[in-house]
């Protein structure tokens, strides 16, 4: 496979680029010496005092687009300001419809402040769900006790005196108790 490319590489080594025509060289020289191109550049300061590089190569650009009105960046800022003004006008002119006391659900949907009903506790209870023995353990004083885990649910219920609203809160709980064992 290398032999196939060896012939091609030998041919490419023998090729020499053509010299550019005089017309192309004069056009490039005109562009490099044009004042439009020289305006946004400033000469680079050299420490040695003189440089062997051509003038066009030694120049570095001076970026003035953010400080001039000819930059496209200013157009973007103008569009952003116009959008902010438009959004402000639209938000001020669009008020939500009036909320009536007859429809409290619409008030909640619109995010308006609605007077919450006064809830009062009416029932509290504890329901035992189960109990499990963890076995007999010996305390530091030498007495034997049985550790028992009880599982239950605490329930508290609140109601509105008008009977419209009701809230029920159920909390699962676990308690550990120690039952003393008597030896006869």
TrEMBL record:
| Full protein name | Uncharacterized protein
What organism does this protein naturally occur in? Synoicihabitans lomoniglobus
């Amino acid at each position: 496979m290398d032999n196939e490319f060896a012939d091609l590489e030998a041919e490419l080594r023998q090729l020499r680029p053509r010299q550019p025509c005089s017309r192309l060289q004069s056009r490039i020289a005109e562009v490099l010496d044009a004042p439009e191109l020289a305006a946004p550049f400033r000469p680079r300061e050299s420490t040695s005092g003189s440089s062997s590089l051509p003038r066009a190569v030694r120049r570095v650009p001076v970026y003035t687009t953010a400080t001039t009105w000819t930059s496209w960046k200013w157009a973007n800022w103008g569009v952003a300001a116009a959008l902010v003004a438009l959004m402000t006008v639209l938000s001020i002119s669009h008020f939500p419809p009036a909320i009536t006391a007859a429809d409290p659900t619409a008030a909640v949907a619109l995010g308006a402040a609605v007077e919450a009903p006064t809830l009062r506790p009416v029932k509290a209870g504890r329901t035992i769900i189960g109990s499990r023995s963890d076995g007999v353990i010996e305390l530091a004083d030498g007495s034997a006790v049985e550790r028992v885990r009880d599982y239950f649910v605490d329930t508290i219920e609140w109601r509105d005196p008008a009977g419209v609203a009701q809230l029920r809160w159920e909390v699962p709980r676990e308690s550990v108790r120690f039952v003393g064992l008597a030896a006869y």
